[in-house]
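Can't paste images in this forum, so I'm doing it all in text. The chain is below; anyone willing to post the predicted structure tokens underneath?
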Amino acid sequence: IIGATLFMIGLALSKPLQNILESKVCIFMGRISYGVYLIHIPVLFSFGCWFFLLIFGYTGNYQLTSVIAFVVTMAVIILLAWAFNSLVEKNIGKILKKIFG
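Text version of the structure:
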């Protein structure tokens, strides 16, 4: 608890860290974070494994394949999380307002 408190105080007093966390990239990642949380495991276990095996068959180099598969899989996860945010999260709020008033 003490460490978390000191971290939050340090963050509150650090203008450079605040500028980084207020950047458009961090705000975007915060907006799609729930989608990333929901989507990452199915994508990693399905697309990520399939893509890794596909690329490894061409290259035969484990390290190169790992880097390529990581970058492509992360791009797919971010794209799907953005789509989830745009299509589901934004519209579910409207539906819930109609249901609950």
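Residues 25 and 59 are 32 Å apart (CA to CA). The helical segments are 2-13, 15-21, 24-31, 33-59, 62-100.
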